[in-house]
Write a structure and sequence with these properties.
The protein has 6 helices and 7 strands, in the order αβαβαβαβαβαββ. The protein has 227 residues and is an alpha/beta fold. Strands 3-2-1-4-5-7-6 form a 7-stranded mixed beta sheet. The longest helix is centred in the last third of the chain and has 12 residues.
Length: 227
C-alpha cells in the first residue's frame, strides 16, 4: 500500500508559541514547501543565524552575511556557507550595494557598545548609528521581516525612537521587548532587547511567550496540516 503523502505544514496554522515548539521538536517545521532567504548583519560567528536554520528545525536559508571581524566571519563561513564578507558595511552600501542579494528576512545585532552601561564614553559613540545601514539593507533586500537584537538600554533611547520612525516609513509594523534568556531554556540570566518589524502582520501577535509558560514533557501540540 503506497504511503500517504503528507501535506506541507502551514506556518499560519500554528496558533501559538507552544505549537511552534512542539512542531519543531517533531521536525515538522522542516516539512514546509518553502525556504526563506536570510541575511545576517553584524553576524559575528553566526549565533543568530543558527537559531533560524534547519539545525534547530527551521526553514530559513542563509544567503549573505557581514561582520568586520575576520575570525568571526571565518567561523560563520565554516558553518553556514562561504558568503560572509568582512568589508566595511558603510563602504559596501556606498560602492557595491548590488552585491547584497534579495532576502525574505534580515536579522542582526548592530554593535551594542554605544548603548552598554559599561562604556563610559557611550555618549556620541558613532556605533550607535549603525542601525542606519542595517535598515538600508533591509530596504534594499526587499525583506518583509527584520529582527534586530541589542542590549536592553536600546529600548526607550533616542535611537530606538529613530529606528521606529524609519521602519514605519518603510512600511513595517513594529514590536519590541526586553527578553531574558532564562525564560527560553538558557541557564543564564541575560537580558537582551529585540525589535521586530513585519510588513504583512502585527509582529506583537507572534512575539514569543516564555518557554517557562509550558512544560516541555507534556503532549498535545495543536497544529494543522494544509488541506
Amino acid at each position: 500500500m503506497p504511503k500517504k503523502k503528507k501535506n506541507p505544514l502551514r506556518y499560519d496554522k500554528l496558533t501559538n508559541n507552544e505549537a511552534v515548539y512542539r512542531a519543531r521538536q517533531k521536525g515538522i517545521l522542516q516539512d514546509s514547501d518553502r525556504k526563506y532567504r536570510l541575511v545576517d548583519l553584524f553576524a559575528g560567528a553566526g549565533g543568530l543565524t543558527l537559531g533560524f536554520t534547519k539545525s534547530l528545525g527551521h526553514v530559513f536559508e542563509p544567503v549573505w552575511a557581514n561582520d568586520f571581524n575576520a575570525y568571526a566571519a571565518n567561523t560563520y563561513n565554516a558553518n553556514f556557507g562561504d558568503h560572509c564578507t568582512t568589508d566595511d558595511i558603510v563602504k559596501i552600501l556606498e560602492d557595491r550595494i548590488d552585491e547584497i542579494p534579495k532576502a525574505d528576512v534580515v536579522i542582526g545585532g548592530p554593535p551594542c557598545q554605544g548603548f552598554s552601561l559599561l562604556n563610559k564614553q557611550r555618549d556620541g559613540d558613532p556605533r550607535k548609528q549603525l542601525w542606519r545601514p542595517y535598515l538600508q539593507i533591509v530596504e534594499h533586500t526587499g525583506a518583509q521581516v527584520f529582527v534586530m537584537e541589542n542590549v536592553p538600554q536600546l529600548i526607550g533611547s533616542q535611537e530606538h525612537k529613530e529606528i521606529e520612525e524609519v521602519a514605519h516609513s518603510l512600511g513595517f509594523k513594529m514590536a519590541f521587548a526586553k527578553l531574558c534568556a532564562a525564560d527560553y531554556g538558557v541557564p543564564q540570566t541575560r537580558w537582551r532587547a529585540f525589535i521586530i518589524g513585519c510588513k504583512y502582520s502585527e509582529p506583537f501577535l507572534v512575539f514569543p511567550s516564555r518557554n517557562t509558560d509550558f512544560h516541555a514533557s507534556t503532549s498535545g501540540a495543536h497544529y494543522e496540516e494544509a488541506a
